């Protein structure tokens, strides 16, 4: 039987500003990438999301990003290696402490936003993130963009890597994500998302914006928690996969 993990970016609300519906999404996904306070999230809200995830048996990952609250971590930055290593360690450590209090633990790391896209191809920043993860816990799994050079870079450094595809994002023919500033970068139709991801799980391919089919080796599917109608997209996707006999399993459990 085919199986896949569903992950979502959660814990992103800040004070009175609500971002997404964490409780509803946690009823659907199997892994949660929790904001660590640098691109989004405040300690009280992060703790509440961790407790909700723990109650549902959802696997926890540290969603580390640039120090960029105003830009939601989506602005390109070029911190020094010392800064990036330190910031990444700091974020993982903060989430580990909150997770411990919530009765769960951090099992993986997924860089967020601009940092995620930068390290996909920037070997220097990628090495900094790898160094930070190894310094904290070399047993942490890394969740990364399928097909990106960073995947082999992290594996060569001894880290376990799980590759993901994005349910609600359009792809270029080279396997990169379409820039969010361009029209059609985000896919909003739940039925279209479900059909695209079923094809990925069963055939290992996805249709790019130019109509070509690209191969993606992905063990997890990401649904952005801040996308409009994200909960509905996740529900329709989960139902579609289940109807075709695809089981949903958190990837981190298979890596200890």
Automatic annotation (TrEMBL):
Q: What InterPro entries does this protein's entry cite?
A: Glyco_hydro/deAcase_b/a-brl, LamB/YcsF/PxpA-like
Does Endoplasmic reticulum show up as a keyword for this record?
no
Known catalytic reactions? 5-oxo-L-proline + ATP + 2 H2O = L-glutamate + ADP + phosphate + H(+)
The keyword Nucleotide-binding belongs to this UniProt entry's keyword annotation: yes
Enzyme Commission (EC) number: 3.5.2.9
Pfam family of the protein (one): LamB_YcsF
User: Which UniProt key words apply to this protein?
Assistant: ATP-binding, Hydrolase, Nucleotide-binding
Q: Note the Gene3D superfamilies from the entry.
A: Glycoside hydrolase/deacetylase
Function, please? Catalyzes the cleavage of 5-oxoproline to form L-glutamate coupled to the hydrolysis of ATP to ADP and inorganic phosphate.
Instruction: Fill in the subunit field for this protein.
Output: Forms a complex composed of PxpA, PxpB and PxpC.
Family, per the entry? Answer: Belongs to the LamB/PxpA family.
Query: Could you tell me what this protein is called?
Result: 5-oxoprolinase subunit A
Organism, by scientific name, is Aquamicrobium terrae
Name of the encoding gene:
pxpA
């Amino acid at each position: 039987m085919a199986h896949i993990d569903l992950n979502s970016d959660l814990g992103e609300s800040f004070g009175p500003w609500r971002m997404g519906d964490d409780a509803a999404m946690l009823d659907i996904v199997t892994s949660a990438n929790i904001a660590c306070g640098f691109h989004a999230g405040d300690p009280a809200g992060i703790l509440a999301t961790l407790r909700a995830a723990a109650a549902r048996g959802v696997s926890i990952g540290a969603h580390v990003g640039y120090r960029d609250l105003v830009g939601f971590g989506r602005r390109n930055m070029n911190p020094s290696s010392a800064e990036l290593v330190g910031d990444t360690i700091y974020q993982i450590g903060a989430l580990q402490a909150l997770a411990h209090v919530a009765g769960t633990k951090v099992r993986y790391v997924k860089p967020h936003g601009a940092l995620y896209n930068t390290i996909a191809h920037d070997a220097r920043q990628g090495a900094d993130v790898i160094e930070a993860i190894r310094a904290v816990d070399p047993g942490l799994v890394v969740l990364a963009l399928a097909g990106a050079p960073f995947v082999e870079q992290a594996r060569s450094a001894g880290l376990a890597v799980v590759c993901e595809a994005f349910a609600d994002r359009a792809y270029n023919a080279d396997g990169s994500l379409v820039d969010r500033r361009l029209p059609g970068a985000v896919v909003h139709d739940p039925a279209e998302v479900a059909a695209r991801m079923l094809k990925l799980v069963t055939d290992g391919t996805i249709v790019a914006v130019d109509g070509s089919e690209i191969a993606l080796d992905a063990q997890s599917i990401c649904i952005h928690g801040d996308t409009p109608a994200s909960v509905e997209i996740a529900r329709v996707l989960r139902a579609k996969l289940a109807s075709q006999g695809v089981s949903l399993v958190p990837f981190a459990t298979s890596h200890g």
